[in-house]
Amino acid sequence: MRGTGILAVSATCLQQTPRWGTLFALPKHNKGRGLSMSELPAIENGNRSRGGADGNGATRERNEREILAAAERVFAQYGYRGASVQAIAEAAGLPKSNVLYYMGNKRGLYVRLLERMMARWNALLDDISVEDDPADVLEAFIRSKMQLSRRHPEGSRLFAAEILGGAPFLQGYLRGELREWVHARAKIFEQWAERGLMDPVDPVWLIFLIWSATQHYADFEAQVLGITGKDEISDADVERITRFLTQVILKGCGVKPPSAMPG
Questions:
Q1: What is the CATH number of domain 11-47+113-260?
Q2: Residue 29: CB atoms within 10 Å
Q3: Which of 104, 137, 177, 214 could be bridged to 145 by S-S, CB 3.0 to 4.6 A?
């Protein structure tokens, strides 16, 4: 059986935590069952509620959801310096005191949004193993990243803006845990190449390529719409883009697409 460990993560893996250290050591509760696209909403949102199952917990969950959604829009539009807690509160339809109560301060809210976006992205490759089929893994990674960028364009732009600004909030994470995470995935790609399952392309550059190609249509949406003359990127467009990227990237890696594989 091909690809039994691909994207095998569960919603409990993405509980939001205040420290980078626990975010990216995702336990493999669901190993052996691939993640379907219908499961993405639950996976990408993680454990929204920090309260119980009672009325207070439900209220907290709803308010945090509204605050995070509003903050993602405001930070993506104005950047960290240009955004204010008051503007976020107004966008969420809540008092400023509520935002501060749930999130602590602007910095804490901003970092939490970055944590959430990176947890979504990293979960897509967290559970792969050398026994998986690179065709299945790469196709699923490209498709899932396109879907996440489609569902959360503001989050993608927020992350891009942080990086373009020199990543002042993420330097330690980029040079530490994310570097280790990328090199761990790269070792698996290298093992696939040693087995003749793909060409010996540089695996780190490959990960960069997939990240940038799939996020382009969210981060540079205005450019895409202006050049193509479209009013919006439709679901059909996303599917065509996904197939195009899959074809080009897999062919460039010497990997046959899943549809071309036997069985």
A1: 1.10.357.10
A2: 13
A3: 214
